[in-house]
Amino acid sequence: MRRKLKRDTGLTLLELIIAIAVLAIGSIAAIRATDQSRIAIGGETPRLLARIAARNRAEELQLLGAAAVLPATVVQGGRTIALNVATEPTAGGLVQATVTARTGTGEGAQLILYLPRAVMR
To answer: In whole angstroms, what is the distance from residue 61 CA to residue 87 CA?
Structure first.
């Protein structure tokens, strides 16, 4: 009795090469996505510190008034943050103050608040 040999018993070299190529492409895509996420998360700390500095400056303006002499830069979380305040009167009798905070690497935050005219000296 003769046994028939099965010709379809394993992977051919071509099938193995194609499988490795598909896995390599998938791995490269996963590494790129991880790298993009790392870059996006890494930029969040300076933006958060800029928001905190802008909020702190807004609180100072509410307490001391827009005429107070405040430093143009602050150090927050080990980063130097430049602060700029632009004021202009509104039609309703208030003063609009725009606080802009920017880190040395370019990330920043902007906060707009309204102060009563009595606070402006």
So the answer is: 11
